[in-house]
Amino acid sequence: MTLYGVGLGPGQADLVTVRGKRALEDADVVYSPGRLSRSVATEHVPEARIGDLDFPMTRDEEKLRAAWKEAAAEIATTARDGDAAFVTLGDPNVYSTFGHLRRTLAAFHPEVDLEVVPGVSAVTAFATALGVEITAGSSLALREADGGRSPTGPDRMVLFKVTDAPSTHTGLVEAGYDVTYGRRLFMEQGETLVTDDPTAIDERDYYTLAYAEKPEARVEQATDAFLEASDESGLVSDGGAQDIARQERSEGVLCGDEPGGDRQ
Q: Where is this region: Disordered (predicted)?
């Protein structure tokens, strides 16, 4: 049978994808690596079907490998006879614990079929929460900023694990970046905060991200011309008769005098 790696999205239960919800509902056991992912999963499946996995809070690689081997053995037993799911916040393949499980299963339980169900990642959730548009022609780098690090280089970066925002901010500003921070975005657990003031989020929180952009990095888009050409009334004109006619038709549609406002 199959193990499904299911991305739960950033943390709100209604941001789980339709396919992810179906995989959770169909699984015999839904395994959770932590408290936050468990709280989202229990919005979709009965708590009795949740399998809790125990991972030690340590950087000791030997202990971590032992924990992953134990978890993989338990999950493989379920997946041989039925369907199982392993849930993770965000997307299973983006800064996720799921990679450890996938590698351990491949090494010790290769008979287990694996299917990944993508989820809304922190990158896209962050861009939406801040109103940041990653336009065509732009480049974007993902970096970690744990412990006050200030990675630099790319014109645009999304930084994960910003646990010391004031220290990270100092290095980024000195390198010429504008920086905005977001904490626990689209999460039901804890306070959501968006700010450009690093002192407002100086408390350590693993679920803090930052968007850093150099002011000159913006890529001009073709539709920018609409905003640049608008007059004080908000109508767009380049001075031509065709534009005036279009403006008159637009005004008619807005006022209900012209049909066609809903045409595709």
A: 229-264
